[in-house]
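<tokenise_the_fold>
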Amino acid sequence: MRFKFIFEHRFEFRIAKMCQALNVSRSGYYAHMKRPESNRSKANRELLDTIKDIHTNSRRIYGSPQITKNLPPEKKASRGRVARLMRANGIRSKVVKKYRATTNSSHNLPVADNIVNQDFTTSKPNEKWLSDITYIATAEGWLYLAGVLDLHGRKLVGWAMDSRMKTELVCAALKQAIGRTGASKGLIVHSDRGVQYASKGYQKLLKKNEFVCSMSRKGNCYDNAPMESFWRKLKMEWLNDYTFRTRAEAKKAVFEYIELFYNRRRTHSSNNYVPPFLVGAEM
């Protein structure tokens, strides 16, 4: 490892000084450099290049499990080996932070029972949807984003954005999801107890399509955990890299993440490392 350090920093520091500081001889260093590269060392070097490419293309999002699953056939390696190479070279995934709740559940409107009750398993698309609202900071003010997530495959099937957090926002996201999927009677649509989801307009839309309404217990974010997880991914993996001057800039970034990256390219452990868009074809 000391000889490797000297070689990698040979253009920054004098070799003699580095040998002295690391307590190795110059002759030992030069003898080491003349040795032919071992097959294992060469394989690790080539594997590391592939790891770096996958990590960069994922915008530094993927950790060792996802990188291992995305290795090409000719570069297949164990997760442990990938993790060791990543640690040794300072390659790590972005850390996901938690965000506070957005919707207001202090109202006198009727609320539905918690039918989902943290059972996030499904056997087919359009069986259980989760919905929620989050916020994005811009220099013009907040941009609110409503989303609808199909638990089967974790695909975001509907979403809408606006400068105001009104009932129309969540209705627009739900209408888009219905139009895209053709979901029918009996679908369970889960949300928190926010006033937008308890509103007459939203409830009327659910009843019109004969959907079953489910709501989280008050103050329990775990009842909507996969939806909360999606918001964290969106912000940590994508939006936190930007400072938005306008809401239009933020909308563009949200579109890129959802439609170009998340639904079509981002692999998920819950999908056996298949992107949401391909779940119907693969599972």
Summary: The first strand starts at residue 128 and ends at 138. Residues 39-57 form the longest helix (19 residues).
